[in-house]
């Protein structure tokens, strides 16, 4: 798989001096008003007219100014060590404290200034090797997507270094793909957490050009802020055959170029801490045990959703309540014949080492001869082990408590009011840790068991006479969702509609 490696020299200058110089350099770059939307001498591009973004350049100055302003706050969202220590120590059991500690110690944080530096280096590398005598297309998509945000940053460096003017593309459709044997398409994005969405996008492009049209593979350059072991492996493959439902079944090494600096090519979390500790982080801080949560990472401009990283843990710093019933979690989530994936997308050579390490750490585990269901047996084993070992040694707390540890978030007046709200504190923890975005269009029956449970209330009333019920009706549930959704920290910069497109 071709991807760019680079070792970057560290600088000893202070943060304030470094940011001032970055801002000063930014101020010097200005858009030449004589630049055309479509470069001259490019041949006929009439068939691409519906897919060319004709407003990107006219809005660029306003948009880059807004991004420059955000750059002034670069680095303000780092983890506060004292707050993180509180977040760890206040967990109610040794198992939970270890999971919290693992989360904090393995979190990657990328500042906006770092993002600028990464994009600059990758843009220079890509332009140094592509044929600039041909057309260069830069994908920007919609203004509330990361592609547009990163296209603005990429274009700043194209101007700064006087590189060839790209053609801004808002949609990737067949008329464009038909040209990519000669011309080049550049796609710039932030971290690839699982590789699934971008991987599907690239696979579709390759499949159309190389398999359906039987032409040489398209010239596509993908520039990424960060990847991990698993996402890079997903992006490194493209399909050559699909089943009757259109699902890929045969894969080969991708001829498309994935560009990422070596420093930001991280190990997947399970690779760094092993199967068991990875399981416990998910059990306590990403309740639905998403198979896509391969890395603990957030950026100045975004905390990704719970299928990508540990969003609710980062933003709110929850202290897991004593009412978090692992046996119910086991029944509801692990049951139904659909156990969550754990590490099955890990490349085979890495999986083998992880499995050997797991067996060594758990000599009492009895392997199953059927490899296809081995991962389910491991999850069953670990869940039962967690139920036995999650012994509380702190005073019982029936409600969720909070200890936010991201510095920029923990100082927020709004966040402090949200985490003190009784509706939020008395939510079921399994529901609180879910990604609230899925409830935007209403709540279906599938999710009701995770939100309401009379059994929980009966148990609490028996042991805690002063207990007040957890959230048990839809109106309150929706209210909790609205309360939590009113606050995002760090803000999803481009999703706020801040960047102008029309």
Please describe the topology of this protein.
Elements lengths: L14 H14 L27 H16 L9 H9 L4 H12 L2 E3 L1 H18 L6 E4 L6 H15 L6 E3 L4 H4 L6 E6 L6 H17 L7 E5 L2 E2 H7 L1 E6 L5 E6 L3 E3 L5 E2 L2 H17 L11 E3 L11 H6 L1 E2 L6 H9 L13 H14 L12 H16 L11 E2 L4 H4 L2 H7 L2 H4 L3 H4 L15 H4 L2 H10 L10 H12 L17
Helix pairs in contact: 2-6, 3-4, 4-10, 5-6, 10-13, 12-14
Overview features:
502 residues; Rossmann fold; 2 domains; 5-stranded parallel sheet; two-stranded parallel ribbon; globular
Characterise this structure:
The chain has helices spanning 15-28, 56-71, 81-89, 94-105, 112-129, 146-160, 174-177, 196-212, 229-235, 269-285, 311-316, 326-334, 348-361, 374-389, 407-410, 413-419, 422-425, 429-432, 448-451, 454-463, 474-485, and strands at 108-110, 136-139, 167-169, 184-189, 220-224, 227-228, 237-242, 248-253, 257-259, 265-266, 297-299, 318-319, 401-402. Helices cover 44% and strands 9% of the residues. It has two domains: 15-72 and 111-265, Rossmann fold (3-Layer(aba) Sandwich), CATH 3.40.50.2020; 81-107 and 270-494, no CATH class. Helix 5 (112-129) packs across helix 6 (146-160) and helix 12 (326-334) runs antiparallel to helix 14 (374-389). It is an alpha/beta fold and 502 residues long. The strands form five sheets. The chain has a five-stranded parallel β-sheet. It has a two-stranded parallel sheet with strand order 1-11. Helix 8 (196-212) links the parallel strand 4 (184-189) and strand 5.
């Amino acid at each position: 798989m071709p991807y760019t490696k680079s070792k970057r020299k560290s600088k000893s200058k202070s943060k304030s001096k470094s940011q001032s110089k970055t801002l000063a350099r930014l101020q010097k770059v200005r858009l030449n008003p004589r630049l055309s939307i479509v470069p001259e001498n490019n041949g006929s591009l009439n068939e691409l007219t519906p897919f060319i973004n004709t407003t990107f350049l006219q809005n660029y100055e306003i948009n880059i100014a807004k991004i420059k302003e955000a750059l002034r706050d670069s680095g303000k969202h780092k983890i506060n060590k004292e707050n993180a220590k509180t977040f760890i120590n206040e967990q109610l059991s040794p198992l939970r404290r270890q999971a919290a500690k693992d989360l904090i110690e393995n979190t990657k944080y990328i500042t906006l200034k770092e993002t600028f530096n990464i994009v600059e280096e990758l843009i220079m590398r890509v332009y140094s090797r592509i044929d600039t005598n041909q057309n260069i297309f830069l994908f920007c998509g919609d203004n509330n997507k990361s592609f547009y945000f990163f296209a603005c940053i990429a274009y700043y460096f194209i101007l700064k270094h006087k590189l060839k003017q790209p053609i801004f593309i808002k949609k990737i459709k067949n008329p464009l793909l038909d040209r990519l044997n000669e011309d080049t398409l550049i796609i710039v994005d932030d971290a690839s957490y699982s590789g699934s969405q971008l991987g599907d996008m690239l696979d579709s492009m390759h499949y159309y050009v190389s398999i359906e049209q039987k032409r040489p593979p398209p010239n596509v350059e993908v520039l990424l802020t960060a990847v991990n072991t698993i996402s890079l492996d997903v992006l490194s493959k493209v399909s050559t055959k699909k089943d009757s439902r259109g699902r890929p079944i045969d894969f080969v090494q991708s001829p498309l170029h994935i560009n990422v600096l070596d420093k930001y090519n991280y190990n997947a979390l399970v690779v760094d801490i092993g199967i068991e500790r990875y399981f416990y982080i998910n059990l306590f801080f990403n309740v639905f045990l998403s198979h896509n949560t391969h890395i603990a990472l957030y950026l100045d401009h975004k905390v990704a959703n719970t299928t990508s990283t540990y969003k609710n843990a980062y933003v709110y710093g929850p202290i897991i309540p004593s009412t978090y019933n692992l046996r119910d979690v086991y029944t509801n989530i692990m049951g139904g014949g659909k156990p969550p994936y754990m590490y099955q997308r890990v490349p085979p050579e890495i999986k083998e080492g992880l499995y050997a390490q797991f067996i060594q750490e758990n000599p009492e585990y009895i392997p199953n001869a059927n490899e296809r269901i081995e991962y389910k047996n491991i999850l069953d084993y670990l869940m039962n082990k967690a139920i036995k070992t999650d012994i509380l040694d702190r005073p019982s707390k029936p409600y969720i408590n909070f200890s936010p540890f991201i510095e920029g978030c923990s100082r927020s007046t709004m966040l402090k009011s949200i985490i003190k709200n009784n509706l939020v504190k008395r939510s079921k923890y399994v529901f609180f840790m879910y990604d609230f975005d899925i409830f935007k269009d209403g709540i279906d029956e599938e999710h009701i068991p995770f939100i309401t449970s009379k059994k929980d209330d009966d148990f609490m009333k028996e042991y805690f006479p002063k207990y007040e019920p957890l959230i048990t009706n839809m109106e309150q549930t929706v209210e909790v969702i609205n309360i939590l959704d009113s606050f995002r920290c760090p803000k999803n910069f481009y999703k706020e509609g801040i960047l102008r497109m029309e």
